[in-house]
Predict the 3D structure of the following.
Amino acid sequence: AQSVTQLDSQVPVFEEAPVELRCNYSSSVSVYLFWYVQYPNQGLQLLLKYLSGSTLVKGINGFEAEFNKSQTSFHLRKPSVHISDTAEYFCAVSTTFGNEKLTFGTGTRLTIIP
Amino acid sequence: DTGVSQNPRHKITKRGQNVTFRCDPISEHNRLYWYRQTLGQGPEFLTYFQNEAQLEKSRLLSDRFSAERPKGSFSTLEIQRTEQGDSAMYLCASQLNSGGDTQYFGPGTRLTVL
């Protein structure tokens, strides 16, 4: 079975400052890794995903994440945040075979301070 | 693509009543998932369909829950004899193929059991 840990439930950041949202996972088999964003009163939207290859993955809205196999981490970063980045961010994993169901972390609420 | 749609968006019911939710996936997406999200938590997997076949059900899915996907198109999730603990957001996602293809989520159905 897989599990995902997002240690930071809330992260306040000043506008135009950099941010890192942490994600660690546990799995005995190879996994795909995902970051989803949930804006207020909206559905989940994919930010980026790691399937294979380069460990640095770029996504939408200026976000990027780095897969670190030895530390079993997939942290999300953005060099300069905007008010519009206020949302809930979920890290998720799936196996690379079978039904590929997603296992999510508990989420990190990113609040941008003007 | 019109995206994944779910109906109704909100459902309020009394304990003991039956409810049914509908999910219309993106056209030609073979794989369909149901998840449940409670307040402050990430989505949790409920069940998975490949075309019309239901291939996996989570232990979260008690005997009161049933899901179908006739003809491999839309899907329904029925909860019989609802309980207050069933109150949650029910999310549907569709995926074109395996291999890490993106799961696209619908807006969800929020169920409140009084």
